[in-house]
Amino acid sequence: MHISSHFFRALIVVSAALGPFAHAITPAEQLAAYTAQAGAPAQAARGQQLFNARHGKEWSCASCHTGMPTVDGKHASTGKTIGPLAPAFNPERFTDTAKSDKWFRRNCNDVMGRECTAAEKADVLAWLLTLKR
């Protein structure tokens, strides 16, 4: 085996071990990524409006997360408890890119019948970041 083969295998092992941490970020970094994708600054007021409004479907984001997502919510159809969405009240929120994207995709489809745009994600997250203890 060549040195490069050993290096390549070691790199694969290290990458696999660090995999769960590869997407660890802060909510502010997640906001910066959505804002960069949108190509425009996020607007917290627009995010609050989007969060609380119905968009042609039965639910709004607030239907499950409550109008003030600093407290536990409850899934509208299953009744399952949902922890606070605002990062200041739930430090795990928006710290994993893959998880954030997965839930935005699912929830936007439930609320709007489509995926959210990067600008909509940025706006909602910008608003959530204004909610402080």
What's the helix and strand layout?
Blueprint: H1 3-18, H2 27-38, H3 44-52, H4 62-65, E1 73-74, E2 81-82, H5 97-112, H6 118-130
Antiparallel strand pairs: 1-2
Helix pairs in contact: 2-6, 3-6
Give an overview of the whole structure.
- This protein has a single domain (25-130), classed as Cytochrome c-like domain (Cytochrome Bc1 Complex, Chain D, domain 2).
- Helix content is 53%, strand content 3%.
- The chain is built from six helices and two strands.
- It has helices at 3-18, 27-38, 44-52, 62-65, 97-112, 118-130; strands at 73-74, 81-82.
- It has a two-stranded antiparallel sheet.
- A hairpin with a 6-residue loop joins strand 1 (73-74) and strand 2 (81-82).
- Mean pLDDT is 86; it is low at 6-22.
Spatial order of the strands in the main sheet? 1-2
CATH class: Mainly Alpha
**What order do the helices and strands follow?**
HHHHEEHH
**CATH-defined topology:** Cytochrome Bc1 Complex, Chain D, domain 2
Mean pLDDT value: 86
Q: What's the count of strands?
A: 2
Distance between the termini: 57 Å
Q: What overall form do the CA principal axes indicate?
A: globular
CATH superfamily: Cytochrome c-like domain
Share of helix among residues? 40-55%
The poorly predicted ranges are 6-22
Total domains: 1
Structural class: mainly alpha
Question: With helices defined by DSSP (H or I, 4 residues minimum), what is the helix count?
Answer: 6
- Percent strand: under 5%
CATH architectural label:
Orthogonal Bundle
Radius of gyration: 18 Å
> Biggest sheet, open or closed, and with what strands and sense?
2 strands, antiparallel
